[in-house]
Write a structure and sequence with these properties.
This protein is α/β, with parallel strands linked by helices. It folds into 3 domains: 326 residues, Catalase HpII,  Chain A, domain 1, CATH 2.40.180.10; 82 residues, Hemocyanin, N-terminal domain, CATH 1.20.1370.20; 139 residues, Class I glutamine amidotransferase (GATase) domain (Rossmann fold). The protein is 27% helix and 16% strand. Strands 1, 2, 3, 4, 5, 6, 7, 8, 9 and 10 form a 10-stranded antiparallel sheet that branches. The termini are far apart. The structure holds CIS-heme D hydroxychlorin gamma-spirolactone (HDD). The site of CIS-heme D hydroxychlorin gamma-spirolactone has 26 residues, from strand 2, strand 3, strand 4 and helix 9. CIS-heme D hydroxychlorin gamma-spirolactone binds next to strand 2, strand 3, strand 4 and helix 9. It comes from Siminovitchia fordii. This is Catalase.
Length: 682
Amino acid sequence: MRGNKKELADSKDKQLENYRAHDEGKKMTTNQGLRVSEDEFSLKAGERGPTLMEDFHFREKMTHFDHERIPERVVHARGYAAHGEFELYESMKKYTKAKFLQEPGSKTPVFVRFSTVVGSRGSGELARDVRGFATKFYTEEGNYDLVGNNIPVFFIQDAVKFPDLIHAVKPEPHNEIPQAATAHDTFWDFVANNQESAHMIMWAMSDRAIPRSFRMMEGFGVHTFRFINEDGEAFFVKFHWKPTLGVHSVVWDEAQKLNGKNPDFHRQDLYESIECGDYPEYELGVQIISEKDEFVFDFDILDPTKIWPEEDVPVKIIGKMTLNRNVDNVFAETEQVAFHPGNVVPGIDFTNDPLLQGRLFSYTDTQLIRLGGPNFHELPINRPVCPFHNNQRDGYGRQTINVGRVSYHKNSLANNTPSLSSVDEGGYTHYQEKIDGRKVVARSDSFKDHFSHAVLFWNSMSEPEKEHIIEAFSFELGMCKEKNVRQQVVDMFSNVDLELAQRVAKNVGVQQPVINRGPKVKKSSPALSQENTVKKPDTRKIAVLVGERFNKNVPVIMEALKNIGTHPVTVGEKQGFIKGENGDELEVAQTFLTGDSVLFDSIYVVGGEDTSHQFFESAAYFINEAFIHYKPIGASYQGRELIEYLNLPSNAGIVMGDAPSEFLEEFIKAISEHRFWNRKTY
Ligand code: HDD
């Protein structure tokens, strides 16, 4: 397809329309198209007799049901996805010939699946875990998949260790405990004995591993890839997704509670944001290093446990992805989508990163078992939007009807078609990197420094972020039963920072290390700290705690909050309508039973003149929770009395006021701040 811009942007949606079935208002039939007259009672020999084999409708319905499940992904089983488009800001012609990166303003349809790594398909979404961030670009030259994570480095350097890593992190095999958690002995035993994981562990213990929303996390291609331009010149490249809402997280206590209050918190947030038009946006950035600079850094640029500090290699923003459509059917799209880091287009190629090289095998292999055969590329969600022709044939579930008798290359019966494409015609050619070496089972010496970037990360954290990391280590190791494992990990991280290791040691009852044998790194990278992220109030959810005879300004303030793009939600004692002092009505959207402070970014307490003691008790619980989670709290009218009565130990992030415009100005500033780490909570 070599269509115009608009056609390309809509091409995936149009293609999917051919496969959509609209069942509503239709007659029920069997899968053979036979109209069904009864779907409640099976065919029996007598009213109270046994069901008969000849009831083909029963057999078909039951058989299909019995086979509804497919194996979940061996990792990243719990995920959620959406459609969208990628728009290019600036041509990348200088670096790559990839067609979708040539013309500013061009739009490419995308499908993005976010996921946790460790848990099963039904697990809670607020696990402390890496998040998958996989994007399929349906380009006119074929599908390009950027299969990344929200953390820019990985646990291991060579793919051959991936099964070991995953065996260690998954629930322990003798009792299948714990679900969706790294806080257990086998994982930390792996870490201590595979110290290349040090840098990634620092990220996993940081707030990055408990994101507030899929909409508020970065994405990274992790590996170093290659760009190749029309002239055959190559560049090393790393990919970044930067959310326009900034990078934000929840606190660990909140994450654990959220898993109970709403284990679907992240998917619901994504789904509802798209439904209400708060489309998630991420800018695409690239870091580029020319081939001649391959060896100028003090780390190996192919090592997937290293970052390219943004201050040294700036991230060039080249386009924006907007997610603007939810799927129609989660199984058909989200579950059956098959990503593969090896799905590339001309102008994008691999490097010798041994982790990437191994991934190139694993993804097709896993789809074969998960999707039941080699034809998964024919599933609607996986089909490229450009035509595809080759001599591959048959296999389970084959849908394409290849016409003609020729299914081999070369041939004369079909004029030697499907024919090959020259480079000029868009034929893919692998970059001709010169390789000179012996076949060895080895790790390059340049991959052997495991701690410098872990220290760089630690140095870059703000004080509150450092505290959270210490708490996370203390929680995780605290859940390990083997003292020896706890001791090994503490000793390992004394190579990063002695105080970190000592404080964790104290918390988990092992000996405090006394020497830091790690690298002496003074450098920091401000881009790594969430303190320096974008802060704005947009799309934030505010619980408005409101009761009978509320102040007449409450609806006015709520309207103003809506107008600036936040989502105020009324929370009260009972569902239904309540009356204000001037007779105005407000509908209570959630009760103290169905809502909870952890489900909101902020709370606004207004109460009412006729609220019960019970209201005050429930509101006090909300306020206390929001307070210990460092959230902005606003209060007006009777709400102010309640806050004063509670006598909280700090007023950081607490905005009180009755005059709407002054109150709003301060409160909105507080909401943008997201959390008040300087709040004393005890
Ligand atoms: Fe992987 C899935 C990301 C290393 C083997 N991986 C998977 C998904 C993401 C990543 C986002 C879910 C895709 C989806 O939503 O369907 N994986 C990564 C990143 C890695 C990484 C960023 C390191 C930089 N993975 C990695 C290695 C191997 C695998 C080293 C094996 C050699 N990954 C798989 C897999 C999965 C997978 C087993 C499971 C389901 C699937 O592929 O489709 O093949």
